[in-house]
Amino acid sequence: MPHDHHDDHPHSLLPSDPALRVKALETILTRKGLVDPAALDAIIDAYENRIGPKNGADVVARAWTDEGFRAALLEDASATVRELGYYGRQGEHVVAVENTPAQHNMVVCTLCSCYPWPLLGIPPAWYKSDAYRARAVREPRRVLAEFGVFLPDETAVRVWDSTAEMRYLVIPMRPEGTEGMDRAALAALVTRNSMIGTGLARAPS
Amino acid sequence: MTRIHDMGGRFGYGAIRPEGEDEPLWHEPWHARAMALTLAAGALGKWNIDMSRHARESLSVRDYANFHYYEKWIAALADLLVETSVLTGDDLKGEGDEGRHPLSYMALKPEKVAEVLAKGSPYIRPSMDDPDYGPGDTVRVRRMPENTHVEGGHTRIPAYAAGARGRVLRLQATHVLPDTSAHGLGDQAEPLYAVAFPASELWAMPEHPGDEVVIDLWQSYLEPA
Prior knowledge:
The complex is a heterodimer of chains A (205) and B (225). By secondary structure, chain A is α/β, with parallel strands linked by helices. Chain A folds into 2 domains: 15-49, no CATH class; 53-196, Nitrile hydratase alpha /Thiocyanate hydrolase gamma (Nitrile Hydratase, Chain A, Alpha-Beta Complex). Chain A has 10 helices and 4 strands. Chain A has helices spanning 18-31, 37-49, 53-65, 67-75, 77-83, 117-120, 130-135, 140-146, 183-187, 192-196; strands at 93-98, 103-108, 156-161, 166-171. In chain A, helix 4 packs across helix 5 (77-83). The longest helix of chain A has 14 residues, at 18-31. The radius of gyration of chain A is 20 Å and the shape is globular. Chain B is of the alpha+beta class and 225 residues long. Chain B folds into 2 domains: 29-119, Cyclin A, domain 1; 138-224, SH3 type barrels (Roll), CATH 2.30.30.50. Chain B has helices spanning 29-42, 49-57, 61-66, 69-83, 89-92, 113-119, 178-181, 199-202; strands at residues 138-141, 165-175, 190-198, 212-218, 222-224. Chain B has a 5-stranded antiparallel beta sheet. In chain B, helix 1 (29-42) packs parallel to helix 4 (69-83) and helix 2 (49-57) packs across helix 4. Chain B is globular and about 60 Å long. The mean pLDDT of chain B is 97. The chains are: A alpha/beta (205), B alpha+beta (225). Strand 3 (156-161) of chain A pairs parallel with strand 4 (212-218) of chain B.
């Protein structure tokens, strides 16, 4: 069923304005009892308030402060983050990749927008953009420069193209001057972009 | 060849324009609604993730290029609902019947949302195929980045890797094969590998001799090299 209908896709029967199109489809599905609008509210609330980059930052801060956790995470991230409750839709199979002075990791999905939802939430608009999807694999250093990240020559870049159901979490390098900081304070330094690999963890202020 | 969604390496897209860390999750209220509607409709159980990806990829080239991200989601959702006979074209036109749908017992209930999101759906399955490769082995990606089961069908071979030589980093597990799963041809799980390619194997002018791209590839996408 590769469906090349050209211009006769069924969606063209809905209103063309996107906001009206979504509203119309929601109304049709609700009237038939196929969708409960309160369930949509609950989904939106989950991603606005519960499932987001704070989860990933907690994982990173644990890896920075607990050598046993770090080793387990690098060995089997799926099982390790699951124990913390960071499991679910779009995060069933997770691999953690660690940045070092010799290697910087960064993540893209050139074919769609695969992203570790239970750890980072809903992907930002730029991650889903055509430009990022096209360029991250071919010219990661120019892409990083657009994010204000400049890597030395001795650091190799490894770009992970999420073509399957594996989801990648970058463990950024722990910033200098953070000795003695507790886990919560460290987690506050871990930005979303640093866990995608388009940023570095913040320096302590 | 592949379809327009297969963007890796293409020229012509311009700057990325990242927003800051505090970028709003949605730029319009309908973005959130489109995302939630797509997830909720998935609970009806009429398609899997590979079918929904294929529906987005099968938008016309013009629509794919012009639609906003969530416009693609909602268009593909409408197309899937008709293709799987959950809705009719008349329903979409607002001229369908108004009664409750026979599938309404499947509708996602608000109190079940947290459980459904947390449950996920794992893609590891037992496979008939033993792994042909192990970490450190050199492999080559099939020259034609196409579905070999269905003409023009779904596949996860990015065109930029076609014919490229790489080295197996790790055997992930045996995973559902998207090329069959997207077309109702079963899971047909295969060994899935993370394969590392030197940038110089993929691009005419690599930025740095040490850089690599790692791609997750199923066993049938690969040949010994």
